[in-house]
Amino acid sequence: MKYHLLIITTALLLSACDINESMRTNAADSSTSDARVIAAKSGCMGCHAVSNSVYGPAWKLVSKRYQGVPDAHAQLTAVIRSGSAGRWDQITGGKRMPPQQGSINDEDLKVVVDYIIALNIPKQATASTQTATKQTE
Ligand code: HEC
């Protein structure tokens, strides 16, 4: 029984990824839940939360800091891969992030980094974009 549930869950996750790949611009909500699932299974959420600083800084704060930085995606990817210290001492009291290597592949990391960067974009803007997209369909 447990196996069946696992297979069904996996199949659902995989099909959600496929849909998401082709409809990324329209499906803001499902890409958000994908990113959260990936972040949780990759161990990020053991130290991070979206809105609160737990062990590491709240991802909303990270998003705010990197807003408008042109190569934010590349910078964050590099920092996550190589580990980080000293950037958030005033929030974390000097905690470090160990290099995140084997726990997450490039494709998944890209989804999570996109998600983190987008956190600071006001919800209203996303909602009106979706409405606009729907109207033109
Ligand atoms: C062992 C705890 C731990 C884990 C696991 C962890 N982090 Fe972190 N993370 C931290 C800490 C602590 C910092 C702040 C480091 C600093 O002050 O430079 C941080 C910082 C960050 C930052 C901000 C980097 C910057 O340049 O400002 C991002 C983004 C981030 N983590 C994403 C992730 C992602 C994605 C994962 C999962 C793949 C992850 N973290 C896993 C503890 C962790």
Structure commentary:
This protein has 137 residues and is mostly helical. It has one domain: Cytochrome Bc1 Complex, Chain D, domain 2 (Orthogonal Bundle), CATH 1.10.760. It is 61% helix and 3% strand. It is built from seven helices and two strands. Strands 1-2 form a two-stranded antiparallel ribbon. It is globular. About 7% of the residues have low confidence. The protein binds heme C.
Give a short overview.
The protein is mostly helical and 137 residues long. 61% of the residues lie in helices and 3% in strands.
Topology of this structure?
Layout: H1 2-22, H2 28-41, H3 59-65, H4 72-82, E1 84-85, H5 89-92, E2 96-97, H6 106-118, H7 123-136
Bound molecules: heme C.
Low-pLDDT segments, ≥5 res: 19-27
CATH second-level architecture: Orthogonal Bundle
Query: Major β-sheet, in short?
Result: 2 strands, antiparallel
User: Can you identify the CATH superfamily?
Assistant: Cytochrome c-like domain
Q: Please report the total strand number as a whole number.
A: 2
Total individual domains:
1
Any idea of the CATH topology? Cytochrome Bc1 Complex, Chain D, domain 2
